[in-house]
Structure formats: C-alpha cells, structure tokens
Design goal:
It comes from Paracoccus alkenifer. Residues 213-290 form the ACT domain. This protein starts with 18 loop residues before the first strand and ends in a 6-residue tail after the last helix. Helix content is 27%, strand content 33%. The protein has 10 helices and 15 strands. The chain has 303 residues and is of the alpha/beta class. It has 3 domains: 18-97 and 185-197, Periplasmic binding protein-like II (D-Maltodextrin-Binding Protein, domain 2, 3-Layer(aba) Sandwich); 101-176, D-Maltodextrin-Binding Protein, domain 2, CATH 3.40.190.10; 198-302, ACT domain (Alpha-Beta Plaits), CATH 3.30.70.260.
C-alpha cells in the first residue's frame, strides 16, 4: 500500500489528490483493480482510456489504472499504442480474476430472469450458464453500465452480468456467482504515474521481482530483431512478453513492446539493453516495477 503524499512516483508537479483514475463506470473490473491495489485511494471513473490518462497527466488524479491484457482474449486494443504516447510511467502491475455474477433486482429469483445484459465480451464468457438457464443475451455498452441500467429499468426479468462490486454499488442481488465458463480468466492491469520510480529493488529473500517494460523500433538492417534479441539470451535475461504492432497504420513501420525480468541497473540487464540500443532506432523505457505476487503463484493450468 502506498501513501499518495510520500510516494516518489506521484509526488511533485501537482498537489496529491489521493485519487486513481480508471476507465468505465463505478463497479467496472478496472474499479475492482483500483480497490484491490490502492484501497487507500479514491477511484475516479473516466469515459475513455484517453480520459483516464489525461486525468493523471493533468493532476486530477495521482495514478491511472489501465488494463493491458486478458488471459482469455489477449491484449486490450489501443493500450499499447496509448502507453508510449501517454507521457506516463508504469509503477506497478496488478492482476484481477474476472469473477462474473448474475445480478438482478432485489427479491428477484434466478428462475425469473429471461434476459441478461452485459458487454459482448462478458456475454461470451458465460455461454454455458446462460444456455442451461435459457437466458437470452442483451448487449450493453459495458459491464457496470449494464448493472446500472438493470437497477434503473426495474424489470424483474432482466439481469446483468457484472462484477460483485457492481451489484454492491447499484443495489442489486447476486443471483449466481462465478458463472464464467473459464475459471482462470484473469486481467492484467498497469498502474501509471506522472513520474517514474526506479528506486525499488528485490528484497533479500528474492521477493518483489522487478520487471522492466519498454518499446522499441529496430533499425532497417537484415535480421535486426534477431540480433537485438540476442543480447537478452547471452546475458541470461528472461523476456516474459514481446509483441509487435503497426505504427500509424503503416505495414513497414513496426513497434515492439517487451517486458523483461530485472532492473535496468542490474549488470546483465544493462548489457542487454545496451546491445538492444545498437540495433534500434528508438528505445523508450515505460516503467520499472515489482512483479505482482500472482506471477509466482500461477500454475500452468492457470496461465
């Protein structure tokens, strides 16, 4: 848990607000991530990812919570394009297990629900449950917004698929819990700040493994990516993620996003990054931060 007043990553430039911004309505899974990772801070809902970033950048919030990937559906669209241009820095990661509840008006029974509203992605994660109970789907703008709509509409036959937190916020009953088809569905979030924090290191027991995230573009020479990656192999640096995506819709302009284990000041990491710089036209460190403990607790069946 961090203190917004003393956290070196978020102090300076603006007075501390004690707020962390997220995209979505109150009760969204991003809101749940805020409550879990920063329970001492006030969660600030924003309409879009761009608004979330701007809330942090402008000083309206100290931190921003951004989802980057889901174990079932892969990376979150647009986030990897947004991160390098945001001017913000990654200071933490957190994982949220996507537990889905069927929510209904107070006093409604499960057998009264004939329709369930939610975001398309969530509707697709509960097919077995919905089919067993003969419940038709209704597409909503988002999960928490669907719960809010059900609360306002007052229709006993209409339920919402959302987080238990959304049920708590909008005064709905939880008619069924953990109804998702895949029990390992997990979303990874990054916590962003206006200032980087490279001060942390693993403790003596080896806990709090450090991660470094960066984006780069390789030089236009043969086998540039292969050569650039060689430095991590020869220096024994574990790369946990490498993704590519087009820049500005041009097929010949490719940017890479990578996560590695270690700190840029660790000698093996420093050597690998130095070799990477030789083969790249741009290299930007997005953040240096502790690995979420869930990384070490995961089993292959959960990954």
């Amino acid at each position: 848990m961090t203190d917004p007043v003393t956290d070196p990553a978020i102090s300076a430039d603006f007075p501390a607000t004690g707020r962390i911004a997220f995209q979505g309505e109150p009760g969204a899974y991003s809101h749940e991530a805020c409550r879990g990772a920063r329970p001492d801070m006030q969660a600030l809902p924003c309409a879009t990812f761009e608004d979330t970033v701007e809330a942090c950048r402008s000083g309206a919030a100290d931190l921003a919570m951004l989802p980057v990937e889901n174990s079932t559906y892969g990376r979150v669209a647009d986030i990897h394009h947004l991160l390098p241009e945001s001017g913000l820095h990654i200071v933490d990661e957190t994982f949220v297990r996507v537990h889905i509840s069927l929510l209904g008006l107070p006093g409604v029974r499960l057998d009264e629900i004939t329709q369930a509203m939610s975001h398309t992605v969530l509707l697709g994660q509960c097919r077995d449950f919905l089919r067993r109970h003969d419940i038709r789907t209704v597409t909503g703008a988002d999960t928490a917004g669907s719960a809010a709509h059900v609360a306002r509409a007052g229709q006993r036959h209409l339920g919402a698929l959302a987080s238990p937190l959304a049920g708590e916020i909008y005064g709905l009953d939880r008619l069924a819990d953990e109804i998702e088809d895949r029990q390992n569905n997990t979303t990874r979030f990054l916590i962003m700040s206006r200032r980087p924090d490279h001060s942390r290191r693993p403790d003596r027991e080896g806990r709090d493994r450090m991660l470094t995230s960066f984006v780069f573009r390789v030089r236009n020479i043969p086998a540039a990516l292969y050569k650039a990656m060689g430095g991590f192999a020869t220096n024994g640096v574990n790369m946990t993620k490498l993704e590519s995506y087009m820049v500005n819709g041009v097929f010949t302009a490719t940017q890479f996003y990578a996560d590695i284990e270690g700190h840029p000041e660790d000698p093996p990491v420093a050597r690998a990054l130095e070799e990477l710089r030789y083969f790249t036209s741009t290299l930007t460190i997005l953040g240096v931060y502790p690995a979420d403990p869930l990384r070490t607790r995961q089993t292959p069946a959960e990954g």
